[in-house]
Amino acid sequence: MPRHLFMDSGFVDFAYQDKAFPIAAGQTISQPWVVARMTEVILQGDVPEKILELGTGSGYQAAVLGQLIDQVFSVERIDALTKQARRRFIKMGYRNIRCKTGDGFEGWVSEAPFDVIICTAAPEKIPYSLLDQLNLGGKMILPVGDKEKQELIALIKTDDGFKQEKLGEVYFVPLLEGVVR
Questions:
Q1: How far apart are the C-alpha atoms of 102 and 135, rounded to whole Å?
Q2: Strands of the 50-54 sheet, one edge to the other
Q3: What percent of the chain has pLDDT over 70?
Q4: Which residues share a beta bridge with 150?
């Protein structure tokens, strides 16, 4: 994946370093190992057909997933980032990625259920209401915590609720409610 195409011009020379970098609107593009780790967890077991990403940002994670998953839906709360990511997807020829501006805590109800929900921003607590948008056996992968400490977590929806697995410490921008137009 050509990461430099998803970065602000001032950081393009550093695009292939394993670091997070700032993008517009005070957001960041995740470091490559985090994108790879989250993608690896998504692909364990059966390859999902339909995925929801919360936190489109630059569109980098969605583009990675767009090469592997039939249908990618992505929600971004900052309208300018949604529009920029959409232009990138079109320019790169992605026809299986749809994005919209919305509140990530609400997911994308009209397109549910999903095989996977991936969150690329950190809520302070697990948003359990999003589990309703998962298929039985579906996964939700997300960082959870505050500015000081975050844990990457995988949840699997079961008949009895969910199973939880901790995947390690990470650092993401916070998942915030509301929409910025």
A1: 21
A2: 97-101, 71-76, 50-54, 114-119, 134-145, 150-158, 161-170
A3: 100
A4: 145, 170
Tens of pLDDT, residues 135-173: 999 999 999 999 899 999 999 999 999 999 999 999 999
| Contact yes or no for 154/39 (Cβ under 8 A) | no
* Token representation of residue 122: 């950190």
Q: How many CA atoms lie within 13 A of 21 on its CB side?
A: 20
What pTM did the predictor assign? Answer: 0.95
Q: Does residue 91 contact residue 112 with C-beta atoms inside 8 Å? A: no
Structure tokens that stand for 48 in this block = 């999902």
Tell me how far apart the alpha carbons of residues 99 and 56 are, in angstroms, rounded to a whole number. 8
The answer to whether the Cα torsion of 149, 82, 108, 105 is positive or negative is positive
Planar angle of CA 23, 126, 98, nearest 5 degrees: 50
Give every CB contact of residue 171 below 8 A, 6+ residues apart in sequence. 20, 143, 150
Catalytic positions are 30
Cβ atoms of 88 and 74 within 8 Å: the answer is no
C-alpha 69/C-alpha 71 separation (Å) is 6
Q: Which long-range contacts (CB under 8 A, 24 or more apart) does 145-148 make?
A: 146/174, 147/174
